[in-house]
UniProtKB/TrEMBL annotation:
Pfam families: HMA (PF00403). It comes from the Bacteria. InterPro entries: HMA_dom, HMA_dom_sf. Residues 19-91 form the HMA domain. This is Copper chaperone CopZ. It comes from Taibaiella chishuiensis. GO terms for molecular function: metal ion binding.
Length: 111
């Protein structure tokens, strides 16, 4: 029985050192981006669509996006590029104008 439990739990335990957490500085122009049904949902979906993303937490108060990911399945660079492609800056990676244009006016800072 113990061998069966170890066989089931083993791969999760072995992946532990490959699971990373990063807090990425971003530009959030409103107080509800993470709850926004269009902008926040688009950001989370774009990240969760990437293989290796385990968890995404948007903190609009501290202007960070915390991402838990499997480092052998996705790189930090890919995560930042995915965030930028969703219309949000990601540390040094700036969101392109065409991605910003897809955000709601309040999320762009236009209101």
């Amino acid at each position: 029985m113990i061998a069966g439990m170890l066989a089931f739990a083993g791969p999760a335990l072995w992946a532990g050192d490959k699971i990373k957490t990063v807090a990425i500085k971003t530009t959030i122009n409103c107080d509800h981006c993470k709850m926004c049904p269009s902008c926040g949902a688009r950001l989370e979906k774009s990240l969760y669509d990437q293989k290796g993303i385990k968890r995404v937490d948007v903190d609009d108060q501290h202007k960070t996006i915390k991402v838990v990911y499997h480092s052998e399945k996705i790189t930090l660079e890919t995560i930042k590029n995915t965030i930028a492609a969703s219309g949000y800056d990601a540390d040094e990676v700036k969101a392109p104008a065409e991605a910003l244009a897809k955000l709601d006016a309040c999320c762009r800072g236009a209101e």
